[in-house]
Amino acid sequence: MYITMTTFVDFVLKSGTPQLTCVRRAKRDYERGSAPERDFYKVLRDAIPQVHQEQKARDSLDGVLGGLKDPKKADAYAQCISGYKQWWSKKQIKWVDIHPWDWTEGDLTVRVNPELGVMVDGHPQVIKLYFKADAASKRRIETMFHLLRLSLPEELAGATPGILDVRRSNLFTPTTDIPDIEALLRGQAAGFATMWKQLAPGK
């Protein structure tokens, strides 16, 4: 089975029956197929890399707001754009071509999909954007770091993985290795796959 990094991290951070609920929801959504409208931040998730790819100015991100009709989305996007522009500030950012890659354990394949491959003031970084209103927890950040580092492609060797809490303009980068986190993730992958197989379609 094939899932996104966000789905897997959400599962890892839960315990007990909430994990089963997470798998049930994921299975239902994946069986329904991809639907852009279910990704609240998709427009901004696409716009931020595009700005760097096309070497546009920071303020060009404000153009995203013009096409939004949902007040809730407009407010969330405005906060994220303001936060991203603040993080960008006077940094010299140059785009580096990247593509999603896979981490596979047993029957489960996790699509690792950082949005940004960039040179930041001359240093290569691979960055996953975090848009949610709630601050990213330490456990979430540590789990995402490890998935990014586990499967970093050869051509990006030496790049620093980062998680950017967009609203708060806060870029997290690894400082220490978490003992046995790989064993934890492999065990969680086996658990996810087992639950998925046991659940009937549409349940």
What does it look like?
The protein has 203 residues and is an alpha/beta fold. It has one domain. The chain is built from 6 helices and 8 strands. It has helices at 5-12, 17-32, 42-53, 71-88, 138-150, 181-198, and strands spanning 2-4, 93-95, 101-105, 108-112, 116-120, 123-130, 160-165, 170-172. The strands form 2 sheets. It has a 5-stranded mixed β-sheet with strand order 2-5-6-7-8. The protein has a 3-stranded mixed β-sheet with strand order 1-4-3. α1 packs across α5 (138-150). The longest helix is centred in the middle third of the chain and has 18 residues, at 71-88. It is globular and about 50 Å long. It starts with a strand and ends in a 5-residue tail after the last helix. The mean pLDDT is 90.
How would you summarize this macromolecular structure in one to three sentences?
By secondary structure, this protein is of the alpha/beta class. 42% of the residues lie in helices and 19% in strands. The protein has one domain.
Q: What's the total count of β strands?
A: 8
Helix content: 40-55%
Distance N to C terminus: 16 Å
Stretches where pLDDT falls below 50 for ≥5 residues? Answer: none
Q: Main β-sheet: number of strands, strand sense, barrel status?
A: 5 strands, mixed
Question: How large is the share of residues in beta strands?
Answer: 15-25%
Computed over alpha carbons, the radius of gyration is 18 Å
For this structure, the quaternary state is single chain
Brief descriptors of the model:
3-stranded mixed beta sheet; 5-stranded mixed beta sheet; 42% helix; alpha/beta; 203 residues; globular
